[in-house]
Amino acid sequence: xxxxxxxxxxxxxxxxxxxxNGLISVVIQTAVCTxxxxxxxxxxxxxxxxxxxxxxWLSQKSNYEKGKPIRGGVPxxxxxxxxxxxxxxLPAHGFARLQDWQIVDAQHKDGDAIELLLETTIDxxxxxxxxEFGAELKMTLKTQLPQSAxxxxxxxxALHTYFSVSDVRTxxxxxxxxxxxxDKVDHAQLKSxxxxxxxxxxxxxxxxxxxxxxxxxxxxxxxxxxxxxxLGSASTVVWNPWIDKSKRMSDFGDSExxxxxxxxxxxxxxxxxRLSPGESHSTTAVISVQALPATSFTGEx
Length: 301
Known about the structure:
Layout: H1 2-8, E1 14-18, E2 24-29, E3 33-38, E4 43-49, E5 76-77, E6 102-109, E7 113-122, E8 125-133, E9 137-144, E10 153-155, E11 157-159, E12 162-164, E13 172-174, E14 181-183, E15 189-191, E16 204-209, E17 215-219, E18 224-231, E19 235-240, H2 242-248, E20 260-267, E21 273-275, E22 280-291
Antiparallel strand pairs: 1-2, 2-3, 3-4, 5-11, 6-7, 7-8, 8-9, 9-22, 10-21, 11-20, 12-20, 13-17, 14-15, 14-16, 16-19, 17-18, 18-22, 19-20
């Protein structure tokens, strides 16, 4: 099948590969970046702009098997976030990251970028994922409820992005200082804004509510800042499992937690999206990287 895809989508800087478990990936290599996306889950596993270290984080214990989620990169969470509220036996974060997506277009864009268009159906919704690998990583998840649907429907979504950092204990995250949050580590209590940058000092699992703000990971030790700009997203999730939870996850290395942090572009909880028949909604995240002098920032506030 991947040979057929290579013939069908003949775009300079793009090729399809198949791993030993039969999963097909799109591999990007241009003058401005490298990247990778698996058709299972439309799951981005790599993006590295030229002149920078890899931006996305992957666990060395990730599964690359049919029907199993990949740990890291950018999983797509849909149509629910976390465990299903009505049936805990259903897959965490929904079906979108586990099923195969169809690639419907691939093209070269200005700035030596490559744009992919993928789609799938999760009844009753049609999902379209547009991703541009370039000097920036641009992702848009468009959800459509067909006109033929019998009633309005609601869903949660998230672009559950894992970022690679030098040491999560020394970074700071800016942009959410004035925003209240639900603290899932502390019995999902709603807590007031801290008015300070976020420092990761223990297990962190927060849903920041009613926010459209950019977030910036300031990584002085890594000499870079990573910016997350979003549209169509009213929630931002910040997550790091820390020590104990890392040990409880079979696809997450016990000592990998210092090298990652998640900043997730989402619509979850009270910010879930409701569509009437014929309506659609788009959730967009744009990732960019800026080099920093090593002395520009510290992990202190």
